[in-house]
């Protein structure tokens, strides 16, 4: 449980603090630091600071600037949109509280975009590779259709309790930012290449590279489901293919940064064991 | 039918349910969303989803009671046939979601577990931990991804819907949208456009809604002639955590477990709350409602908290409205055991442990019951005709609306755990109607056969808007105007509504609406320009804000979430039985007068200047005759008795008349 005291001891708050943002105007453009001094107010978070910067429209020194570009939506840490690197740690910016950051880091706040995804602009990155991974591993329950066919199979409380944490994955990308085996892939549309052809080339490249811990954990989730289990084999084919489970170097960084505390390393271990059986079974089937 | 396509705008529960069902029917779908669909606002729903189930059925529950609770909760402003159909489908919707792999909580025997929610006596609500909305959304997202791989669904994520495209006859033939990364504007041909873009909470500045819930898509439909229904019906939740960026929900269970609501008697007392002595604390709910204390009904709690801050000036803080919700008198270990989950949310976002420091809370805008006007095909027995293209269509042919952005399911007040149901239901139910529509497109009228000029003209209009915004030099700051709009809307059109305040707000919003045309952008670039996208959304908030205010001003009554104390029917005063009975008769006369005058949908249309015109439409109350909501009113029992007698007399008379008609 959370540590507490009646009056939380904290550093005296500064009059103002500096926000240092690693900006970039677009792909292929240089990165640069921009500085914003923000008067201290209680109960700010990184989102509200970025909103203040947008409303102000200028950097320290008075130079006019565009609002910092960033992704966000729910502001409750359930949509996964607002991930960035805050004072060196990958996390959601909605739950990054200024009071806590000032206590931990003094009066400078440093915001950078994630490094494992192409930067679209400023703090906004393109995480489409994460969704492509979900396609590759067939992360769904293959039902017959959406007509009324009665209830699903009964499941034990224990099964639900095992599945629920895995299904809380919000595709935020923290685990991939921390993973030493996951490296950035940045592709450009070539002149003369149609959008469709470019999308296809992207998907193929993504599929040939590491899917990442979030997708491995989704394989566990759907293999666990009584109906999902029926196409477990296809999922195992995908996860033992190029860019699959074998790429994991077992650094265990993923589980340490997951904001939802999903047992990612347990999922990886499970798929590791299943992969061995899967490969052996394939051998026997073929022999 | 090979080239026919449906464009779905919005990928929350309603949009995804519609997409997946259409794909199953073999219809190609373009799914457009401003955010990756998996990040839609539906993820924020915590509580659960309602349906009658095997257990409640044996305790006397049935679909009709679910229907009755929903209509009564909505204060009879809901259209009854769609709600009836929804309640009948509810068990099937939950079965389907169960089959799709939603991790619903289970009983020891392996059945779906259920909890009880407000406004009903039965445990109808299925839930998945405290993230039911997220779990349901993910299940639909996964199915849609499957169809994407199959090739029937093409996603356009990170595209912002700019406008429907209508032909000369006023039929919707597609839409213009903008890529929010590259800023490319393009037109989309579609044989039907389905708007599933959720609520409009951002009109109030901060609310419990996500940042994409601006109402701009609905407004863009209004601006080409769509009707907006019951705009003034906005649900406000009593307890939310005020944040600089967002108001996050704090569950009612905190009060259920003994939480006490108070403010210091000295306005803005600067002492820390724990050092303020009991005698100097104002436990206003306990003092004013000795019987119910802190557990007064939700709407009353909302009104009292609002009143003590706004009208009595007793807010805990000077610059921000809030009251204390205090649990610190309860043992910390017990709190952790009973309320651990929700207390952790408070600690996560406030950095303060509510076991030791009183929480600061305030009511927050939570749900838009109103929205785009939509139609339906009623059957003789008061259900919906399956497969009718009239279901969910707006007044613009081939333009549809489903989910929170449509208006007819929740009346004047939504029941807890009914929103997830209405979103999935309306999305699924829409699909067979669209199939019928697409099969019957007249020769030469399919979207792919339409002249290119139609699309080019619509595109040019949006390109003009975009360019002129970039060039604007009026000096106004869109972010500051948004704050001002939020403040005035929150003050005038949330919990307590007073005509003078609404009139004043209409003036202020009008002036802001002029100023918003003169916004100067701090980003005039053509790459991922969030500044210009926000400014467009902000400008488009105004027609809906005006419709909300005008609708509220003209509705001189109390109905559901719309509360106007000046027009409240007071309780009975006499202690004498005869007199009391007489008073009850008079009360019922007044209630009937009110029903005749105001039990109507408010319908707003927008003129070229974005000014609303309000008209009224009858509500289909043919299945369940209106009855007064009497919770906590003095004399409720006798009023109820009188009203029941009147209703049965009326029904008997109608029956007799019908019999006489048949006989003749």
Automatic annotation (TrEMBL), chain A:
The keyword Transmembrane helix does not apply. Its cofactor is [3Fe-4S] cluster; [2Fe-2S] cluster. Pfam families: Fer2_3. Keywords: Iron, Iron-sulfur, Metal-binding. GO terms for biological process: aerobic respiration; respiratory electron transport chain. SUPFAM superfamilies: 2Fe-2S ferredoxin-like, alpha-helical ferredoxin. GO terms for molecular function: electron transfer activity; iron-sulfur cluster binding; metal ion binding. Residues 160-190 form the 4Fe-4S ferredoxin-type domain. This is Succinate dehydrogenase. It comes from the Bacteria. Belongs to the succinate dehydrogenase/fumarate reductase iron-sulfur protein family.
TrEMBL record, chain B:
Residues 6-420 form the FAD-dependent oxidoreductase 2 FAD-binding domain. It catalyses: a quinone + succinate = fumarate + a quinol. The keyword ATP-binding does not apply. The active site is at 298 (proton acceptor). One of its GO terms (cellular component) is plasma membrane. Transmembrane segments: none annotated. Pfam families: FAD_binding_2, Succ_DH_flav_C. Belongs to the FAD-dependent oxidoreductase 2 family. FRD/SDH subfamily. This is succinate dehydrogenase. It comes from Blastopirellula marina DSM 3645. The lineage of its organism: Bacteria, Pseudomonadati, Planctomycetota, Planctomycetia, Pirellulales.
């Amino acid at each position: 449980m959370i540590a507490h005291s009646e009056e939380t001891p904290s550093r005296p708050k500064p009059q103002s603090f500096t926000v240092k943002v690693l900006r970039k105007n677009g792909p292929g453009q240089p990165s640069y630091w921009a500085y914003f001094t923000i008067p201290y107010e209680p109960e700010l978070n990184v989102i509200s600071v970025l909103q203040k910067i947008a409303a102000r429209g200028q950097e320290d020194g008075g130079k006019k600037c565009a609002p910092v570009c960033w992704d966000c939506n729910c502001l409750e840490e359930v949509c996964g949109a607002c991930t960035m690197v805050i004072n060196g740690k990958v996390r959601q910016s909605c739950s990054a509280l200024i009071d806590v950051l000032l206590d931990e880091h003094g009066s400078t706040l440093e915001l950078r975009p994630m490094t494992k995804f192409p930067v679209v602009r400023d703090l906004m990155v393109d995480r489409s590779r994460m969704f492509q991974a979900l396609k590759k591993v067939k992360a769904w329950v293959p039902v017959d259709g959406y007509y009324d066919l009665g209830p699903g199979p009964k499941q034990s409380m224990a099964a639900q309790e095992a599945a629920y944490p895995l299904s809380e994955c919000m595709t935020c990308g923290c685990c991939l930012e921390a993973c030493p085996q996951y490296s950035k892939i940045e592709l450009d549309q070539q002149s003369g290449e149609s959008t469709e052809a470019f999308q296809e080339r992207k998907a193929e490249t993504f599929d040939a590279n590491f899917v990442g811990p979030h997708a491995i954990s989704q394989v566990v989730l759907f293999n666990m489901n009584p109906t999902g289990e029926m196409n477990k084999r296809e999922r195992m084919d995908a996860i033992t293919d190029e860019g699959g489970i074998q790429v994991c170097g077992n650094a265990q960084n993923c589980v340490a940064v997951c904001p939802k505390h999903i047992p990612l390393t347990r999922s990886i271990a499970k798929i590791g064991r299943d992969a061995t059986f899967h490969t052996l079974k394939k051998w026997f089937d073929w022999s | 039918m090979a080239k026919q396509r449906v464009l779905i705008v919005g990928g929350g529960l309603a949009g995804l349910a519609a997409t997946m069902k259409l794909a199953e029917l073999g219809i190609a779908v373009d799914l457009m969303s401003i955010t990756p669909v998996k990040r839609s606002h539906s993820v924020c729903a915590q509580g659960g989803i309602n349906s009658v189930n095997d257990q409640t059925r044996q305790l006397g529950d049935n679909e009709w009671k679910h229907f009755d609770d929903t209509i009564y909760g909505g204060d009879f402003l809901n259209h009854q046939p769609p709600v009836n159909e929804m309640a009948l489908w509810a068990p099937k919707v939950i079965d389907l979601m169960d089959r799709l792999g939603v991790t619903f909580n289970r009983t020891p025997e392996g059945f779906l577990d259920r909890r009880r929610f407000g406004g009903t006596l039965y445990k109808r609500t299925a839930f998945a931990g405290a993230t039911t909305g997220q779990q349901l959304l993910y299940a639909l997202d996964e199915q849609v991804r499957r169809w994407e791989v199959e090739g029937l669904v093409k996603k356009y994520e990170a595209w912002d819907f700019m406008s429907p495209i209508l032909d000369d006859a006023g039929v919707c033939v597609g839409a213009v949208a903008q890529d929010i990364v590259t800023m490319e504007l393009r037109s989309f041909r579609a044989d039907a456009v389905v708007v599933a873009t959720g609520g409009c909470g951002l009109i109030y500045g901060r609310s419990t809604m996500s940042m994409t819930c601006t109402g701009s898509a609905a407004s863009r439909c209004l601006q080409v002639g769509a009707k907006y229904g019951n705009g003034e019906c906005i649900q406000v939740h009593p307890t939310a955590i005020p944040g600089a960026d967002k108001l996050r929900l704090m569950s009612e269970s905190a009060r259920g477990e003994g939480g006490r609501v108070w403010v210091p008697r000295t306005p803005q007392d600067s002492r820390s709350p724990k050092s303020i002595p009991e005698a100097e604390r104002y436990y206003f709910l306990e003092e004013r409602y000795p019987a119910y204390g802190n557990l007064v009904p939700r709407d009353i709690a909302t009104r009292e908290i609002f009143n003590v801050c706004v009208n009595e000036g007793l807010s805990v803080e000077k610059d921000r409205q809030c009251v204390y919700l205090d649990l610190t008198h309860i043992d910390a270990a017990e709190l952790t055991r009973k309320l651990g989950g929700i207390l952790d949310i408070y600690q996560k976002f406030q950095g303060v442990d509510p076991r030791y420091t009183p929480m600061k809370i305030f009511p927050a805008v939570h749900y838009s019951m109103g929205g785009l006007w939509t139609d339906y095909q009623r059957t003789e027995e008061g259900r919906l005709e399956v497969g009718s293209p009239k279901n969910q269509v707006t007044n613009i042919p081939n333009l549809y609306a489903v989910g929170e952005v449509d208006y007819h399911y929740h009346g004047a007040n939504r029941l807890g755990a009914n929103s997830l149901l209405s979103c999935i239901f309306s999305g699924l139910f829409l699909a067979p109607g669209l199939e019928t529509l697409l099969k019957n497109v007249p020769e030469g009228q399919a979207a792919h056969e339409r002249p290119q000029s139609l699309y080019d003209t619509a595109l040019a209009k949006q390109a003009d808007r975009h360019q002129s915004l970039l060039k604007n030099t009026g000096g106004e700051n869109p972010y500051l105007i948004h704050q001002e709009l939020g403040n005035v809307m929150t003050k005038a059109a949330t919990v307590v509504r007073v005509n003078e305040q609404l009139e004043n707000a209409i003036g202020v919003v009008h002036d802001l609406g002029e100023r918003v045309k003169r916004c100067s952008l701090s980003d005039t670039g053509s790459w991922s320009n969030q500044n210009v996208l926000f400014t467009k959304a902000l400008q488009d908030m105004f027609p809906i804000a005006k419709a909300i205010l005008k609708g509220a001003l003209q509705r001189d009554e109390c109905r559901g979430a719309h509360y106007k104390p000046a027009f409240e029917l007071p309780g009975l005063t006499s202690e004498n039985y005869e007199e009391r009975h007489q008073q009850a008769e008079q009360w019922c006369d007044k209630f009937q007068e009110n029903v005749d005058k105001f039990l109507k949908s408010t319908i707003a249309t927008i003129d070229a200047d974005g000014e609303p015109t309000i008209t009224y439409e009858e509500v289909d109350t043919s299945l369940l005759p209106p009855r007064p909501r009497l919770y906590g009113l003095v004399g409720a029992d006798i009023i109820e008795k009188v009203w029941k007698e009147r209703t049965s007399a009326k029904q008997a008379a109608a029956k007799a008349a019908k019999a006489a008609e048949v006989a003749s």
